[in-house]
Design goal:
This protein is α/β, with parallel strands linked by helices. It has one domain. Helix content is 22%, strand content 14%. It has three helices and seven strands. The strands form two sheets. Strands 1, 3, 5, 6 and 7 form a five-stranded mixed sheet that branches. Strands 2-4 form a two-stranded antiparallel sheet. It is globular, with a radius of gyration of 18 Å. The two termini are 33 Å apart. The mean pLDDT is 91.
């Protein structure tokens, strides 16, 4: 076995995020939300029989707010601020230009890497999961833990429960 080169190390994501928030003008570095106690609910049925919900931070394409295509520069105008849903029956036009990711090493040109709807449909066909909910759920990325925990998360949870999901796959971008 050969060791990797000394420079071949994981990206210090949290430090980069803290520096990025300071550069945006926030008065303090980003603090990752984490809790001592995390609720956990075991599945009540095997995954092969479960109804799966997809929750994503991908934004619906918005005409007229600038480049939102693969590799686009960060585009704050493409952000969305309210929870949305759309059908899981067809591939929606969702984009990720509104979030920060490593644009130097990724073009984000394969939506399957950040919006796995096609893979979830394949998992249903293969019998690995029972079914998908009829819609997926869009989670805003407005950099407010308070809004996320007090407004967006309860709204998404209500919609996921409405669609009788047994489990959710969360895909942040």
């Amino acid at each position: 076995m050969t060791f990797a080169a000394d420079h071949d190390v994981p990206i210090p994501y949290m430090q980069k995020t803290r520096e990025y928030y300071l550069a945006l003008g926030y008065g303090n570095p980003y603090r990752w939300a984490h809790y001592v106690d995390v609720p956990f609910t075991p599945l009540t049925r095997p995954l092969a029989q479960a109804r799966v919900a997809l929750i994503s931070t991908a934004a619906p394409y918005q005409e007229g707010v600038g480049d939102q295509g693969p590799g686009a520069k960060y585009n704050a105008a493409a952000k969305f601020y309210k929870v949305y849903t759309d059908s899981t029956d067809s591939m929606p036009d969702v984009r990720i230009s509104h979030v920060g990711y490593d644009r130097t090493n990724s073009k984000a040109d394969d939506p399957n890497t950040w919006f796995p709807l096609i893979q979830l449909h394949q998992a249903v066909k293969a019998g690995r999961i029972g079914a998908l909910t009829p819609r997926f759920y869009g989670a805003p990325t407005n950099r407010s833990q308070k809004v996320t925990t007090e407004t967006d998360a309860p709204e998404i949870l209500a919609r996921v429960r409405e669609d009788a999901a047994d489990v959710a796959v969360l895909v942040p971008t």
